[in-house]
């Protein structure tokens, strides 16, 4: 009997060791700008989560996991050994492009190529749709008029709550970031400075105050973008290079 008790104790201790997990919280920021990085994938073994808009995350790291990994398509992958993890982490991600002051070196890369590569790498996340309410109503092709239609409650719940899931939120973050990058490709310091002659802080104010919407940039030709910048510059010049009232968006997009 004593041997049996010791055996049971060893089994319980082994089970506890296998199921033991450490809750880790942290913040992920851009190494250069020190700004929070949202939508970064944080994974440790089978556990995964995404950083929120403030760059924060919380994840349960199992004892069997050997490393914690943070990935984001705009940054280099960051990995840290579980044995070196503190209860609160401050992680700085290094951008995947090289920035020198106001100049960004991309070599022969362009937005279209980067966008395609991102969508291939994150195809599952970009294509995420989630279940719909109609998916919960199941049936088969042999059913006759008047036959009862069954409802799958698990799918129905998943459809009604999908907007609160990390997958749905990450999908929206990926699309938002892609739209922002597209605008940056057509409305940046190099292009605006060439058209307006602005530089320094004045150029930065102009870029912030007159940044166009993604839908406008998507439809505009290069000529229309240049006309838009010139029209905005006239307003900017008229305002004394102070920009429009932040409470009223006076920039017209056509």
Strand line-up across the major sheet: 3-2-5-6
CATH architecture of the domain at 2-96: Sandwich
CATH topology of the domain at 2-96: Immunoglobulin-like
- Tell me the Rg in angstroms: 26 Å
Structural class: alpha+beta
Q: Would you count the extended β strands for me?
A: 11
Helix run count: 9
Kindly report the oligomeric state of this protein.
single chain
| pLDDT averaged residue by residue | 75
So, the CATH homologous superfamily of the domain at 2-96? Carboxypeptidase-like, regulatory domain
CATH class of the domain at 2-96: Mainly Beta
What is the CA–CA distance across the termini? 86 Å
Helicity, in percent? 40-55%
Largest sheet: 4 strands, antiparallel
Runs in which pLDDT lies below 50 for 5 or more consecutive residues are 4-19, 98-111, 245-252
How big a fraction of the residues is strand?
15-25%
Element pattern in H and E: HEEEEEEEEEHHEEHHHHHH
Which word captures the global form?
Answer: flat
């Amino acid at each position: 009997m004593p041997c049996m008790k010791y055996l049971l104790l060893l089994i319980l201790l082994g089970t506890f060791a296998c199921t033991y997990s450490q809750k880790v919280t942290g913040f992920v920021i851009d190494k250069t700008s020190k700004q929070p990085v949202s939508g970064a994938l944080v994974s440790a073994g089978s556990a995964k989560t995404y950083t929120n808009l403030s760059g924060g995350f919380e994840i349960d790291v199992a004892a069997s996991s050997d490393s914690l990994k943070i990935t984001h398509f705009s940054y280099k992958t960051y990995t840290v050994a579980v044995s070196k993890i503190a209860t609160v982490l401050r992680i700085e991600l290094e951008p995947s492009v090289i920035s020198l002051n106001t100049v960004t070196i991309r070599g022969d890369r362009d937005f279209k190529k980067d966008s395609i590569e991102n969508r291939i790498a994150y195809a599952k996340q970009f294509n995420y749709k989630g279940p719909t309410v109609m998916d919960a109503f199941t049936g088969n092709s042999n059913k006759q008029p008047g036959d009862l239609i069954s409802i799958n409650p698990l799918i129905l719940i998943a459809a009604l709550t999908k907007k609160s899931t990390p997958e749905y939120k990450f999908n929206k973050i990926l699309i938002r970031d892609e739209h922002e990058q597209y605008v940056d490709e057509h409305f940046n310091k190099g292009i605006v400075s060439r058209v307006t002659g602005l530089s320094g802080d004045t150029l930065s104010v102009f870029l912030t105050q007159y940044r166009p919407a993604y839908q406008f940039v998507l439809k505009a030709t290069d000529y229309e973008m240049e006309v838009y910048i010139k029209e905005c510059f006239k307003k900017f010049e008229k305002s004394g290079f102070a920009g429009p009232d932040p409470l009223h968006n006076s920039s017209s997009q056509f």
